[in-house]
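Side project, low priority. Logging it here so it doesn't get lost.
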Amino acid sequence: MLQPYEFFVGLRYTRAKRRNHFISFISLISILGIALGVTALITVMSVMNGFEKELRERILGAASHATITLFEEPMQNWRELAEAAVEHPQVEGAAPYVEGQVMVVKGKQVTGIVVRGVLPEEESAVSDIATKMVAGELVELESGSFEIVLGSALAQYLGAVVGDKITVITPEASVTPVGVLPRMKRFTVRGIFDIGMFEYDRNFAIMHADDASVLMKLNKGYTGVRLRLEDMFAARRVASDLARDVGEDYWVSDWTHQHANFFRAVRTEKTVMFVILSLIVAVAAFNIVSTLVMVVTDKQAAIAILRTMGSSPRSIMLIFLIQGALIGLIGTALGLFGGITLALNVETLVPAIERFFQTQFLPKDVYYIDVLPSELDYNDVVRVGTLALVLTLVATLYPAWRAARTEPAEALAYE
């Protein structure tokens, strides 16, 4: 024989016979349980990967990979600093910015936002906002025109459209003959952008850097320089290199510091979900214990006959290990196929389900993003498949050990 007989006996025990249809039914349930657990685990891990990637791209599409700022004073020599930063092989682009918190007013609507001043001709080198415009163009902002570009949710809240006037109020007050008054300036809405992330679309606006500098009383200075890197995951190392190059008068920060808590929370949630869903696989895998225990009980006479024919306890144990491993292998293979297929089609299936039930699973005003993304990582597939196989093998040890301890005389005494 090309393979040992234990394999053929174990394979035969997994098939239904006249007396053990119930045992085969339990085996089928175990296979389906493992398959469903593996499918769910791969799908959820892929969705979590997709969420992390989508959030990172949307956040960094409006924010920056790294920033360089001066301590406690406006930056005047931004161009020299930008040219020095771009010399680093990882830095793809640099642009100045002015940033501050203000209040915007239109009619009876009042809200606080973050406003950023940019040079329109330079901004495309460090962000994707110019490609996210749904009305107007970012490059149409002109110095001295006092025009502003609003996020889509902010424009909706204010009831503002292109061409409307809004009032911007800064936290700094001006001293006048009639007393201390807040500094206010009328701006014209020049455009509207939609990043697809409610946090930015609702609480963010853009204007020309020169206008922002006047508004913030920075004397034609800038808050700092924003950088875009070739590899965003190298941000910490690049920031360390730039901090050493630019000197102690500057503060270099990167996105891993600015959004550290947020992405750490996403990563922690991903780990917790993996542990929780692994328990589903574990429960399904340990159903094999009950299946094999019933098989061992049902096959007492057959085990005894094999022992009297010369089979060793090791061979008997191997038979049931093979049976449990086959159940686990089939369940894992089905689960991997189902998980990969579902993970690759989540972005198609979910919108179809939403249209069918006339609902939206992720409303924009509640969640950071309004779509259910998926990013299949084959490292996760390997981890999940390995975990399922290991759990099924562990689950077979006790029933196989119990079968190996069967005494032929006791098993045949009542046959």
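Brief comment: The longest helix spans residues 313-357.
Revisit when time allows.
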